[in-house]
Amino acid sequence: MKKSPVSMTINGQPVEELVEPRTLLIHFLREQLNLTGAHIGCETSHCGACTIDLDGKSVKSCTIFTLQAEGAHIRTIEGMAAADGTLHALQEAFREKHGLQCGYCTPGMILRAWRLLQENPDPTDAEIRFGIAGNLCRCTGYQNIVAAIKHAAILMAGAQQKEAAE
Amino acid sequence: MNEMSPVPESRQDREAKLEGMGCRRKRVEDVRFTQGRGNYVDDLKLPGMLFGDFHRSSYAHARIKSIDTSKARALPGVVAVLTAADLKPLKLDWMPTLAGDVQAVLAGDKVLFQNQEIAFIVATDRYIAADAADLVEVEYEELPVLVDPFKAMLPDAPILREDIADKTEGAHGQRRHPNHIFTWEIGDREATDLAFRNAAVATKHLIPYQRVHPCPLETCQSVASFDKIKGELTLWGTFQAPHVVRTVASILSSIPEHKIHVIAPDIGGGFGNKVGVYPGYVCSIVASIVTGKPVKWVEDRMENLSTTAFARDYHMTAEIAATPQGKVTGLRVHVLADHGAFDACADPSKWPAGFFNIVTGSYDFPVAHVSVDGVYTNKAPGGVAYRCSFRVTEAAYCIERAMDILAAKLGLDPAELRLRNLIKREQFPYLSALGWEYDSGDYHAALNKALDAVSYPALRAEQKAMQAAFQRGETRQLMGIGVSFFTEIVGAGPSKNCDILGIAMFDSAEIRIHPTGAVIARMGTKSQGQAHETTYAQIIASEIGIPAADIMIEEGNTDTAPYGLGTYGSRSTPTAGAATAMACRKIKAKAQMIAAHLLEVHHDDVEFDIDRFVVKGMPDRFKTMKDISWAAYHAPPPGLEPGLEAVSYYDPPNMTFPFGAYICVMDIDVDTGVCTTRRFYALDDCGTRINPMIIEGQVHGGLTEAFAIAMGQEIVYDEIGNVQGASLMDFFLPTAVETPVWETGFTTTPSPHHPIGAKGVGESPNVGGVPAFSNAVNDAFTFLGSQHIAMPHDPWRVWKAAEALGLQG
Ligand code: FES
Ligand code: FES
Fold first, then answer.
1. How distant, in Å, are the alpha carbons of B353, B506, B755 from that of B579?
2. Same domain for B556 and B668?
3. What is the CATH classification number for the domain harbouring A72?
4. Chain A interface includes B271 (CB < 8 A)
5. Domain containing A100: what range?
6. Which of A103, B45, B105, B601 gets the highest tally of CB atoms within 10 A of its CB?
7. Which of B114, B221, B240, B463 is catalytic?
8. Would you say B313 and B716 are in contact if contact means Cβ atoms under 8 Å apart?
9. Are residue A116 and residue A147 in the same domain, yes or no?
10. CATH code, B789
11. Among all residues of chain A, which has the CA nearest to that of B729?
């Protein structure tokens, strides 16, 4: 099948590639770019394992074609830790609060939580539960994920205050 | 000796440094998982790798008249198309199942369930493979479909398995009908009949447990790579039991076992789905042999839900005999088990109904009798233990519902009835009427603690007031209180009664201590999220006094790990956990010799203390495990082999019997059927607790799965065998919004026969949780005369149940 050029920015890096028009974004990320952090749990937009951040929104990357992401700014789990390897507050918090077991939902869950906290830096439990309702987890029962996101909110607020003070 | 450090470290500090058993050690696995650096099967990319996909049956029961693959083959990018005709010369068109039956790898003469595998397409990418799958043309002749297991053994039932139609003897004895698989009977039939004849009170009810699916977030997948020159096969896959897969692959393919390398990398949840061997695995192997290229097979969600490994589908008729005072005197259960088109249940080989004979539960039944009939239907094969030990959740559900039905009949409170019948602490070890020896327990303490935690009497008072208000027409809300007391049976198992295809169900650990005191340890089990890399290291840390941070755990590579039977049925801690402790003890014995040699005393004069061997009575004369490790390679005592390592294969003397008391409080809106969990309290006793944080996580996860099963999951078939709702649109996976908040508690009754007293916990919450939810829903309607409302308790069905009681308008 004929391929079309596509360009976008992923985790701050410009990307230019050729893809078949029907290639879903999740397959492009995983197979063409080897960004295997986002996972596939259904390919029908239900599970959220493939969640990435695209132009300021959480997007299930199995739901859109790669070509629809032309010019987009994308963040994936691979772009969460700092360049020096320091984990993001959400990554720390998920570990601290035991917010993951098999780890399969985790990259999507963390990306979703990150966007949620951008929009609502101090969410209640109920707001977190509603905010992550598009992401399924089969292992944890969500309780510790909610705790992890709350904990991350505190860590992130603390970091911001520190920054402001400096 | 510690001349170097002037201020000796406190015992607490030394203890804490180890991060051993009992501490909430953070998980090692999370470092890679939170960064998206896990290594799951679908992440694997090999040079020249091809993709496989299936063409599947549209019908549940039909004769295949012809298969035309020419259009599929003609599609550019398609490398091969395999059908049963291609597998037959290799004798791979059928494969043995774990239950002693055979299963078609690709359907040849006829299809027996919808979505059965017919052709395997191999192409250069997954899109082309999917395109080509649609181009395969199959001509069918439709046959009458058998969906209802209760009609399976009627004289005029359509015969499903023509391949074994006239075999009157199956893997588990006599077959009475071509659609009959086995009858399994246990207990004393006559004594039980007598108990019922003499019973003052008796109850009898059909308690169905619907067909569900484990549905881990990652589906089943494999990558096979056959090296023609070396004659070696490497197989990566989602395997809960990689060593067994290697043995089965060797038997099937005739490739010698040492030339098969099976690797289970990180697994995205298993819950029983990834125990069996599926046609996809076999086809990826054959396709790699045929094409000479690595071949990847990845199941999609629809295929997962409709073909690999359903669970439950047990139709249980339970009868209890009792005295008017509520003392149980006998239990009789008959089960009609729907096994689908092939008997592919993942049970230990001699146990066609798993450990269903745990059905006497936590109660002191003097006599009991159980019979199970397995039958074929035109549904997908499976019958796996979905987050439970083999058929234990079915058994727990059966007895816990039956006890509530009896309580209602006697007019007794369900908790009170349980307290009158629970096995007493002094009765352990307790031999059950159906043959199990329960290892340890303090059931009354556990139930009383749970009742206190929720202020049970106050809840019952509130419920009474609400019922009165309901009857006065002042509210349309009802309240249900579900009590469940369960006994699990895990850790399969002793070789005297447990094997899989003849291999005894031991498990293993191999521990090597390097000269610097760093450790690598490998086990025969395989984590799918249970955090073995974290917890096994804690066992080793406590046993031999080396910090968990210096211990690396590896599983899943059959080339390097010792043979083991894998992870399911909460068996890892009871078996490989025990093997780990035993291997540590071998190492410790040698370490003692080395320490004594270094300290120039007799080995009886040194003793182990946290992280070192000390000369008795002289705490400042010691050698740390680090000193000893170095000496083991540098200057071993004369006559002693250098090195410090050990292997243990642990054959458990008995199963372990975790237990717990769960209480669920449910508010139900009669007009909408919506059930809201107000409160859920789970008390677990899993013996010695290795990592409380991980235990709580396991309990949360298991309860959430129990909630899903009780409140919404079902794999439904229509009358012509079309599978309804095999997608995440229809199959209920709760989101964070519906999922209740969990409260947990515990008691600790160590297993007397396990080296560290641990019993296993991963599956208890599913076993105990399902009846707690279902009892809560049922309890809400009991005062209106309802006996049993079947699961799943989704709003529509609850509304219907209320309607049947005359509550709707
Ligand atoms: S894989 Fe995209 S939502 Fe499930
Ligand atoms: S941790 Fe396994 S699916 Fe969420």
1. 28, 9, 9
2. no
3. 3.10.20.30
4. yes
5. 89-165
6. A103
7. B240
8. no
9. yes
10. 3.30.365.10
11. A46
> pTM for the full model?
0.97
User: Of the candidates B316, B276, B290, which has an alpha carbon nearest to the alpha carbon of residue B402?
Assistant: B316
Cα B672 off chain centre by: 34
**Structure confidence at residue B400 (pLDDT):** 98
Does residue B1 carry a pLDDT above 80? no
| A20 touches B: beta carbon within 8 Å | yes
Residues 6+ apart with CB under 8 A from B583: B509, B510, B511, B521, B646, B647, B648
Catalytic entry in B114, B675, B763, B797: B763
Residue-level pLDDT at B4: 53
CA of A28 to nearest chain B CA: how many angstroms apart? 12
CB B262 within 8 A of CB B255: no
Of ligand 1's atoms, which has the minimum distance to the CA of residue A62? 2
Q: How far is B736 from chain A (nearest CA, A)?
A: 5
Tell me the Ramachandran region of residue B667: left when phi exceeds 0, alpha when psi lies from -120 to 50, beta otherwise.
beta
A40 touches chain B (CB under 8 A): yes
- Interface contact flag, A104 B40, Cβ < 8 Å: yes
What's the B12 CA to ligand 1 centre distance in angstroms? Answer: 47
Provide the token pair at B276.
């069996």
Q: Is A136 in the pocket of ligand 2 (CB under 6 A)?
A: no
Express each pLDDT in B234-268 by its tens digit. 999 999 999 999 998 998 889 999 999 999 999 99
Q: Which uninterrupted H or E stretch holds B51? A: strand B50-56
Q: Quick one: B57 and B132 in the same domain?
A: yes
pLDDT in tens, B489-499: 998 889 988 98
**Å from A160 to nearest chain B CA?**
22
* CB-based contact, A26 to chain B, within 8 Å: no
Annotated catalytic residue B387: yes
Instruction: Note the maximum CA span of chain B.
Output: 90
Query: What CATH number should be reported for the domain holding residue A135?
Result: 1.10.150.120
- Residue at A84 is within a domain: no
Please identify, among A56, A79, A102, the residue that sits at the C-terminal boundary of a domain. A79
Helices (H), B136-278: 189-197, 242-253
Residues 105-164 of A with CB under 8 A from B: 105-107, 110, 128-130, 132-146
Task: Answer yes or no: B175 catalytic.
Answer: no
pLDDT value at B2 more than 50 = no
How many contacts does A have with B, using Cβ atoms within 8 A? 178
Find all residues with CB under 8 Å of B210, minimum gap 6, and list them.
Answer: B312, B313, B713, B714, B715, B790, B791, B792
Assess whether A117 and A161 both reside in one domain.
yes
Question: For residue B783, is pLDDT > 90?
Answer: yes
8 A C-beta contact, residue B206 and residue B212: no
- What residue ranges in B124-215 does DSSP mark as E strands? 137-142, 169-170, 173-174, 180-187, 201-212
How far does Cα A99 stand from its chain's mean position?
Answer: 15
Domain containing residue B678? 394-491+655-804
* Residues B781, B675: Cα–Cα separation, whole Å: 12
Mean pLDDT of B6-24: 92
B49 plus B83 within the same structural domain: yes
Q: Where a domain ends, among A79, A111, A131?
A: A79
Helix pair angle (A89-96, A106-119), 10° resolution: 120
Task: Give chain A's domain count.
Answer: 2
- Of how many residues is chain A composed? 166
Q: Is residue B458 part of a domain?
A: yes
Q: Can you tell me which residue has the tokens 């070192």?
A: B612
Contact B736 A110 (CB under 8 A): no
pLDDT digits (tens, 9 = 90+) for B43-63: 999 999 999 999 999 999 999
The pLDDT score that the predictor gives to residue B6 is: 62
Q: B634: part of which helix (H) or strand (E)?
A: helix B625-634
Question: Does A140 map to a domain?
Answer: yes
Residue of A75, A101, A129 to mutate for B, most B C-beta atoms under 10 A? A101
